[in-house]
What does this fold into?
Amino acid sequence: MIQIENLSKSFQSNVVLDGISVETKEGDVVAVIGPSGAGKSTFLRCINLLEVPEQGTIQINDLKIDVTKKTKEQVKSLRQSTAMVFQQFNLFRRKTALQNVMEGLVVVKKVPKEEAEKTAIAFLNKVGLSDRIHYYPQQLSGGQQQRVAIARALAMNPELLLFDEPTSALDPELVGEVLDTIRATALEGNTMIIVSHEMNFVRQVANRVLFLENGKIVEDGTPKEVFETPKSDRTRTFLSKFYQSREPEYAI
It folds into this structure.
């Protein structure tokens, strides 16, 4: 179970998150949508304390943290329970795909190198990169780099996967391969929170959608509810722009 209560974050006088509360079950795929500046990425970064909220509690199964009273050990445990896939991949440039996936296993989880290598190879195979394990990031396409990042996250066996606009830095022709990988990850029962602007993908993969506006959740429901019968005028206006642009369907 993931439970977030009253999460608030400001940057100087700018309130980015305004008392957000969300509860999810194991295996949920929660998509977070909304306009630029709504607080979507900050929300993800606050969940694993890459950004520190001013108030709120974060609970992942048995671990519960009051962010105003957090300890170093709690932060370490929280980050071991989560894994984030970033917009810009965030791979180590001087390490191969294999070494990038091994890094967290060896350094954070203290897994012996031989075991870490076997695990890393298995997850690189899972994302379709068995022939690229010894390639450096600069030798890989953007889509391949993002798949390495997904393999790295999966290898850590987190209780919660966080995806922050995982296709926003990719050329259009590379988006599909990354979305395919995320979809396969969802189908395996991983608990995930995804910030995405790929509306068709969100409709087909998520079982719950949150619409953020000005740091608040203004819509929360199934994809069918949010996309077909939104309760909020603001949600309707936002989604109408995508319908008007005739966004091409992503083939699942």
